[in-house]
Amino acid sequence: MMTRTSKKLLSITTMFLACVVLSRSALGTPLETTINTGNEESVANIMDTIMTDDGITLVRVSDVKDELWTLAGDRVGTVLVRARFAGYNNTFGVIPGTDSGLNGFQGVASSLGGNGIAGNGGTESSLMDLGLSGDFRLAIETPTGTIWSSLASDNVDSMDHMVTWVDANDPFHYFVAFEDIAFPASDGDFNDVVIELHNVLDGPSSVPEPGTLALAVIGLAGFGYVRRRKALSLP
Question: pTM for the whole thing?
Fold first, then answer.
C-alpha cells in the first residue's frame, strides 16, 4: 500500500518525466525550410569554408526562432555586421518592430555580387546607431527594390527567405543566409548573401526554451520536497 509520501513522490516524478518530454519536443523543433543545392556555390560549402577559416562550429537554428530579433535592454556592447559571401548585389539591413510590414527598412551593409568567397566580405558595420528598441526583423533589399524579411508573413510569397546558424561555442555569434528570388521561381539555395553578426546579446538561441525552464522548475521543486521530507524525518 502506498504511503502519502510515496504518492507525492510518484506525482512529482510523473510531472518531471512529462516536462522531459515537453523539453525534448521544444528543443527538437523541426527545420521547416529546405536549402536546395542549386547550380551555384552551395550554402553548405560556404558555411564549411567559414567554419574552416574561422575555426568554429556552426549549428542550424530552428526556423521558427529566427524571425524576430532583439537588442539587449541595456544595449551593452555593439552588434557588428559583416557580409561574408555574396552571390549577387544586395543590401542587408533591419526593419524595426514586428507588424509594420516592410516599411522602415534601414540598410546596414552592402554585399558585392560575383560569388565573393567567405572571408572576403568587407568591413563591419554596427546595428547600435539605428535607434532600434524591442523586436525587429532582419532583411535584405535587392537592386530592384524588393525586400525580403526574416519574418515569412512579411514577404509577398509568405515564404521563409532567411536561414540561421549559431556558433556552437558562442551563443552571441550568428550567421544568416538569404534567398533573394520569390518562390516558386527561386531555386531556394540561400546563397545570395551570407551575413555574420557578432555580439547579438538577445539572439534566437540565447534564451532557454519554455520546456527547458519548466523542467528545471519542476526538478528543483521535487528536489526541495525530498530534502524537506528527509529533514522532517530526522530525530
Answer: 0.71
